[in-house]
Amino acid sequence: MTTTEATRAFYDAIAEDYADRFRAAGAGTPLDRALMGAFAELVGPEGEVADLGCGPGRVTAHLASLGLRVFGLDLSAAMLEIARREHPDLRFEQGSMLALDLPDGALAGAVSWYSSIHTPWERLPDLFAEVRRVLAPGGHLLLAFQVGDEPLLLDRPFGHPVTLEFERRRPEPVAELLERAGFTVLSRTVRIQEEETSSKVPQACLIARR
């Protein structure tokens, strides 16, 4: 089974439980929402934005509430069913971040909110090249992921018979890969911990311009 197939099967299996578990979290912490707000201001309301790996659509909906013309894309049909059910006014499509069905320069912005964590390190240059391809000159990318040196293995979450590794990375080498792919990194932040979340793992967020 390929990484893409394993990721799709994992999220198809846990979709309803995942959506229930994280529904109350909305679009994340105050700092998360501040970074999304900065991204929205940089992009502006004119061009289209893709939320890549949108899951149940909570970040997609928050970005839309900030005035962006945004649609969600995800591998998992089960996740997309929830997203369409809970956000019927928004557009959601099935597809892979590594092979986007979009023409060159079609987007003003792209978001990968904890979705690149299922892309192996050796495929990140391919992912960043594909995102750069579909961004118009001056378009922006918002990229979030957990910080660390070792992956997290989730085995049988919510009791489902599935397993998946979640990659944790250091922001410095990720920023380097973005620069090599032709991006200019505008912002690199690391959130250590907030009262609103029980996570003790630092969270990185990068904003880059094509």
Give the overall pLDDT as a whole number.
Answer: 93
- Largest sheet entry: 7 strands, mixed
Number of helices: 6
- Share of helix among residues? 25-40%
List keywords for this structure.
single chain, 6 helices, 7-stranded mixed beta sheet, two-stranded antiparallel ribbon, 27% strand, 35% helix, 210 residues, alpha/beta
Task: Provide the fold topology.
Elements: H1 3-22, H2 30-43, E1 48-52, H3 58-65, E2 69-74, H4 77-86, E3 91-94, E4 107-113, H5 124-134, E5 135-146, E6 152-155, E7 163-166, H6 171-180, E8 184-191, E9 203-209
Question: Can you give a write-up of this model?
Answer:
With 210 residues, this protein is of the alpha/beta class. Helix content is 35%, strand content 27%. The chain is built from six helices and nine strands; from the N terminus they run H-H-E-H-E-H-E-E-H-E-E-E-H-E-E. It has helices at 3-22, 30-43, 58-65, 77-86, 124-134, 171-180; strands at 48-52, 69-74, 91-94, 107-113, 135-146, 152-155, 163-166, 184-191, 203-209. Strands 3-2-1-4-5-9-8 form a seven-stranded mixed sheet, sandwiched between helices. Helix 1 packs parallel to helix 4.
In short:
Helix content is 35%, strand content 27%. By secondary structure, it is α/β, with parallel strands linked by helices.
